[in-house]
Amino acid sequence: MQRARHSHRIQGFSLVELTIVLVIVGLLTGGLLLGIAAQRNAAETSEARRQLENIHEALIGYAMANGRLPCPASATLPDSDANAGIAATPPCDNAAQHGVVPWVTLGLPQTDPWGNRFTYTASSAFTAAKPSEALASFTLSSTGNANVKGSAISTANIASELPAVVVSHGGRSAGAYQTSGAKLPGAAGDEAENADADLTFVSHTPSDSFDDLLVWISPSILKSKMVAAGRLP
Predict the structure, then answer these.
(1) pLDDT digits (tens, 9 = 90+) for 150-194
(2) Which end of the chain has the smaller Cβ count within 10 Å, N or C?
(3) CB 226 within 8 A of CB 163
(4) Cα separation of 27 and 130, whole Å?
(5) What b/e readout covers 75-113, taking b as 16+ CB neighbours within 10 angstroms?
């Protein structure tokens, strides 16, 4: 009897130990998974920023070579369509100012790290067809019509009169166009401002409700590059 009671005490103690070990392992595993998720998100964000910089350079390069910025590609065509990813033919004014980055025309990847297309808005003043006798479709006095603010309710602009703006809708992806041409729902607040196909955009540090990433074409930088390329006087 004493041996049996002793055996039960050892068995009970072992179960307590096992429970403690399982709890510790669970905590460590949970922390490890959170750490891995954070690292993955940081890597994806870094890659998206790199892609945006490549798009920025490709757009300016296109303008230097062609005398104008490319029109956006249709956002709603599935990538199986022969015209998907190809810049629209000028004039791309009004609603045609808004679409996605023409990835085929520019020779760039179609999607960001989250599998969504890059939203692209370009001012018609900078995408107009170039007259045959002209070196560029715009002049040193041309102004864009897109603006970037610090929040949807802000009245001040971070940048104004921009020729073009490009948006990655981040890991949340609300408002982004997929490769099928479908637009993901759920954009609200500041993210809605970047998905409503108007000329006002929002850029600020990420938060629980905002993870969009933006890059824009500065009119002064674009014009200086055009001057250096001999496209503007």
Answers:
(1) 999 999 999 999 999 999 999 999 999 999 999 999 999 999 999
(2) N
(3) no
(4) 63
(5) bebeeeeeebbbbbebebeeebbbbbbbbbbbebebbbb
For the chain, the residue count is 233
Which of these, 211, 199, 230, 225, lies nearest to 58 by C-alpha position?
A: 225
CB 102 within 8 A of CB 86: yes
Q: Give me the sheet containing 213-217, strands edge to edge.
A: 98-100, 119-122, 164-168, 213-217
Instruction: Provide the token pair at 189.
Output: 């607040």
Evaluate whether 214 touches 165 at the Cβ level (below 8 Å): yes
pTM of the model: 0.84
Q: Are 121 and 164 in contact (CB under 8 A)?
A: yes
Instruction: Please give the Cα distance from 210 to 196 (Å, whole number).
Output: 15
The two three-digit tokens of residue 174, written as one number: 């609300």
Element (H, E) at 192: helix 190-193
